[in-house]
Each structure stands twice: as structure tokens, then as C-alpha cells.
Specification:
Two copies of one chain form a homodimer. With 344 residues, chain A is an alpha+beta fold. The first copy, chain A, is built from nine helices and 13 strands. Helices cover 31% and strands 24% of the residues of chain A. In chain A, the strands form three sheets. In chain A, strands 8-10-7-11-9-12-13 form a seven-stranded mixed β-sheet, with helices on both faces. Chain A has a four-stranded mixed β-sheet with strand order 3-6-4-5. A two-stranded antiparallel sheet of chain A has the order 1-2.
């Protein structure tokens, strides 16, 4: 971050929005009118619009002690794009609301918007509106993302069927281990500010926490290979919690094989270092933003060569419950111990 | 508000959203998929979508000491619908993000959502998604509204022309006077809790603050009478500030006649009681959510019988500046002294 500090009052609200968004260029032909009026205008003729919103609150969803503002801006966009992809849609536009206390300078907000811009450019999304204001305490970020999908091609959580294969993209637990590492280093630093954080060899899990991807590539792969998931969602709260959503909304049970859950070697090593069970991290750790979907068994051959998709189990009847089959062939009930904002 | 208190942890995030939105019914055929998935889906075939977002922060935008939660929920929706109408569009859907500290009970949130529901029903809008979480301090509300408009029939701020008449709907300054009254009564109460607030005969200004309307009726009137405004916006920051936006974005100047600015008798009486100039309240007080628009002089005859529309001046060349013509025929520069979130 720059060492200059410009107070925000100098610009006023409208000058501020103009300033922060001056380098954003429109990329979607569906963006008819962007920032600068009462509302933005979008043309989605012949497609359906998909909308999602997320509110991120400092001290609840992020800690600025170890989250650079550029990464926070980037990630605030990604978590919403992930929800759009999870509908089998393409994100096209976002609007951002930002409230901040007077401890934030113009340079700090510029860093945040730089991260927003990187995410927008990477995923071909237009920032088309927003709202900024002061807050009494901390930083509050609201992002609403809009996407488009061919009519009725969106994929819900409620349409899985018994016998369908359960698949996840990428690997799980990394973001939670990155968070565990950052919290540990933060506590060491608070107790002894002379000690510099030790993040050596932990690039992978730190990256999973601070610069997640939204799995546009998986949606494209499924489309290219004519695989239509029977149900889909993204993993934001942890595999346990999210697979239970699929079960509940589809009125089914499931079997997940512990040894099929994809965990990166770096995550596994970090888990052992912290004395944690890698499977528990994958099941209960959130924020991986991978896709969780179900598909017909007949489509299995189409994904065997795709290393970024793992089949981890199958859907079964509701009466059979939602269970994890451990490496030792024991059956355990899957319970939602995912990140719960209200349990804190 | 009910005197019961149910702690929110009991429900969890997803149970909470289900509970709070259980009585909301879908009213728009364009709403394909509402609450309960990663995102909502909207069909706007043959129309353009209009999007706006607002972030409302306790202690900055509202004071719960004199804002009942039901009114706050209602008003949070209205301020966004007002932006959609100001584009000459019809609002169709909203999504809401809510973050709250543990001082809020389930009953308090129910009150808030009851207000949201009243606004949705009154304006035929569907609540289709949302996000709830905890906050470290206070209540934070994010509302994004979506509307639809026939292709290219939206009206911007930048398209007024020299000679166009400047019109406003309803009357101005009332919300600011309501706020002034509430702040005065709050301070009296803080100094002396035995004294009950004296809101006698102040229904009008209190109503303007706590239950504003979005001017759907004006948009309908203009449409019925084939009046196409040349530029339009809503008045949220005060007439001075907002007419300067029209001037800046249309690259024009303006003349506003003080004696043409519509001020309700009750607002005028309240202003005199508080020792304030009613014109200054109308110019600089915000939150009236009336429409400010420009139209061709040829359309003048079409509005003479419509008491809810006042012609207050005209647009002129940029070089002539933006000026107020007082009752005494003096000319003053109009300056933006509207509510500025950053000047506080």
C-alpha cells in the first residue's frame, strides 16, 4: 500500500466514486448504462438474469491485520461470482456498497478497488454501480453480482436424484488451513511484535485464503463435455454443511468416501503441522469456493481425465441418511459444523 | 415491537432467512427462482434490467432511538425503489443483506422484515435473495433493487437541454424537518428521561421522515399523459445538491424560483417553530425521495392540472451558472449543501 494518506472528505461521495472507478472499462455488451446515474441498466434479451448478494463485515468475515485490502477487494468479488457460476450462469455485472470509518484513507480504498478491478478483468465482469458511506466502526462491504444464463439452463440445489454421483472441483480445506496459520501468526505477533510472521512454504494455503478462484473453468468444462449437473452449489461453508444443503433441498441422503475427498499435499502437510485432521479441515473448513455438484452415473466417463473434478460419493434415499464412510470403513453421520456466523 | 425475545443462534443463518421470509409471496412473473439457492433467477425477455444498491449504516443513516424497525425495513426498500422509478423503470425484485450485533432479537428482525414486506406488497416487488450475518456493532442494511424498462426508455440525468422546464413532485423539506424534530426530542429525552416526546401536530413531517413514498404514481402519470422527461433523478440529498447533479451531468446551468419550490404548510409551520428558513430546508434537506425531472416547454399544458407536479424553473446554458431567484428577485448561486456523508 502507498504510504501517502489522502483524507476522503476532500472528494465527497460522488467525487470518490468517480475517482475509484475511473479505470474500470465496460466489457459486456449487455451493460447499457454503468456508474453515474440513479441506477444501472442491463440488456439480457433472450437470457435469464441471475442475482446474488453478500455482506462482508470487518471483524466477522475478515481481519485486516492479515488481509491486504487489494486481496479483500478481489475476494469480495470472487465469493459472489462463485455463487453465479454455481447456478451454471456467467457473471456479467456487479454493484458494490462500501461503508468505512475515518481510519481509511483514499489510498486504502484505491487498493481495495484495485483488487475489485483485477477480479472484474479476470472474469470479464463490469462494475456498474455502487454506494459509499461512512461507518461508525470498521469496513463493511456489500457486493451484488448479476449473471446470465440461457433460459431454464440454471441449476438448482434441489434437483439431485438418488444414485447420482457427488463431485467436487479442486481440493478442500486449504482456505481453512490458511486462516489457521494467519490466526496463529497474528497471535504470536500480538504477544511479541518483534517476531516476524513465518509464512515460509505456506504459499499454497495462504493463497487459498487470500486469492481464491471462482471455478469458471469447471463450468466451461462441463458445458464443453455436455455434462449437465443434476444439482450444484458452491462450497463456502465447508463440505459437510454444503452437502447437507444439497441433501435437504433435494430430499435425499448421501454417502461420502473419506478417501475420495480431494486434499492438496500442502494442505495435508499444514494440517499435520497444526495437529489437525486433514479430513476434518476439508469437511468443516469453509471458504474454498469450489463447486459441489451431482451428475448422472452415465456421465462418469466424461470426467475421468479431468483432474480438477473428483467423485467423492453418491446420493441415496433420504431414509439412509447423510453419512461419511471412513478409510477404516466406519460410517459416521455428517453434521453441519461448517462456519456459522451466529455461533461466534 | 413484541416484548418476547428469541435469540437468533437458535435458528442459524439458513433457518433465520427461511423464517423471516416465509410470508413473502412472489408477485412478478419475471421472478423465476427466489430465495433458497446460490442466486436468484430473473426473466426480463424483451426488457432492460435496471439495478441500484444502497448501504444503510446505524448511527450514520438512521438512529434506532426514533426509527421503529418496521419503518426502517420499509424505508430501506423505498429509497431503492425511488432510484428505480427515477430511471423511468418499474421495480420488480430486491435482495437484502443484513448484518446485526447480538443486541438484536428475532422479534426485532421480524419487525424489520414486516416493514420490508409492506413495501414489497405496496409496490409489487419480490424479495428474491439475501444474506444475513453478525456485525461487531449496530445494524447494517444493504438493499439492491432490480427493475425493468422497455428498451432504451430509461431516463438519465445527463440529457436535459437548455430551455427545458425543471419539475419536482410532491413537496420538499418535510423529511429534514421531521429529522430536526426527532433529534430535538431525542436530546431533550437524553437530558431528562422523564419528559415524553412532544410530537403533537407533527404527523406530517414525522411521516415524511419515517414512511416516505416512492413516486410510482408520478411515473405512471407521465406515461399516461405521454410526457417523456428529458432527464430525471430522485431527490435524496436535497434539491440544491441534486439539481447541481442534473446541471453537471447535462453540462448546463439552471434558474430556480424560490417562490415556486413546493413546501407543505405543515413543513412551513414546523420550520418557523424551529427558527429555520423553509426554503433552506427544501434546498438543503435530504431524504424527501421526490422526483426531479426536466421536460420540454411544449409539455407544460399536460401538467397544469396535476397538483403533485410543480414547475420550479428552467435549464439554461452552462455559462449562466446555477442560480436561485429569490422572492425579492435577487440571484444567488446554488451550492451543494445537501447531506454529505463524508462531512460529518
Amino acid at each position: 500500500m502507498s504510504t501517502e494518506r489522502t483524507e476522503i472528505e476532500k472528494l465527497g461521495e460522488f467525487g470518490l466514486i468517480d475517482h475509484l472507478t475511473q479505470n474500470f472499462e465496460t466489457q459486456n455488451s449487455s451493460t447499457v448504462l454503468a456508474i453515474g446515474d440513479d441506477a444501472a441498466v442491463i440488456d439480457h434479451f433472450g437470457k435469464q438474469s441471475v442475482i446474488t448478494t453478500d455482506l462482508l463485515v470487518e471483524g466477522v468475515h475478515f481481519d485486516l491485520m492479515y488481509t491486504p485490502l487489494k486481496h479483500l477487494g478481489y475476494k469480495s468479488v470472487i465469493v459472489n461470482l462463485s455463487d453465479i457460476y454455481a447456478m451454471n450462469a456467467q457473471p456479467t455485472q456487479i454493484v458494490i456498497g462500501l461503508a468505512f470509518s475515518n481510519r481509511f484513507s483514499l489510498e486504502a480504498l484505491e487498493e481495495f478497488y484495485l483488487g475489485v478491478q483485477i477480479a472484474c478483468e479476470r472474469y470479464n465482469v463490469d462494475l456498474i454501480g455502487g454506494d459509499t458511506s461512512t461507518s461508525q466502526k470498521g469496513l463493511i462491504i456489500s457486493v451484488t453480482a448479476i449473471g446470465e444464463v440461457a433460459p431454464d439452463k440454471f441449476i438448482k440445489r434441489s434437483t439431485a436424484e438418488s444414485g447420482d454421483l457427488i463431485c467436487v472441483s479442486g481440493d478442500l480445506g486449504g482456505a481453512f488451513l490458511g486462516l489457521t496459520l494467519m490466526e496463529r501468526e497474528k497471535n504470536i505477533f500480538i504477544e511479541n511484535p518483534q517476531i516476524q510472521p513465518n509464512l515460509e512454504n505456506e504459499d499454497y494455503i495462504v493463497g487459498r485464503l487470500l486469492k481464491p478462484d471462482a471455478r469458471k473453468d469447471i463450468i466451461e468444462y462441463l458445458d464443453e463435455h455436455k455434462i449437465v449437473p443434476t444439482a450444484m452449489m458452491d462450497i463456502s461453508d465447508g463440505l459437510s454443511s454444503d452437502v447437507l444443503h444439497l441433501c435437504k433441498q433435494s430430499e435425499l441422503g448421501c454417502r461420502i468416501y473419506e478417501d475420495k475427498i480431494p486434499i492438496n499435499e500442502a494442505s495435508r502437510a499444514a494440517a499435520f503441522k497444526f495437529g489437525l485432521d486433514p479430513t476434518v479441515c476439508a469437511l468443516n473448513g469453509g471458504e474454498d469456493y469450489e463447486l459441489l455438484f451431482t451428475m448422472k452415473q452415465a456421465d462418469y466417463d466424461k470426467i475421468t481425465l479431468q483432474e480438477e473434478i473428483s467423485v467423492i460419493g453418491y446420493m441415496c434415499d433420504k431414509e439412509e441418511g447423510a453419512k461419511l464412510i471412513t478409510k477404516g470403513k466406519n460410517l459416521f453421520d455428517i453434521t453441519a459444523q461448517g462456519w456459522n456466523a451466529f455461533a461466534k
